[in-house]
Amino acid sequence: EVQLVESGGGLVQAGGSLSVSCTASGFTLADYGVGWFRQAPGKERERVSAVSRNNGRTYYTDSVKGRFTISRDNAKNTMYLQMTSLKPEDTAVYFCAASSYWGMPILETEFNYWGQGTQVTVSS
Question: What are the Cα distances from residue 29, in Å, to 8, 13, 21, 72?
Answer without folding.
Answer: 19, 32, 13, 9
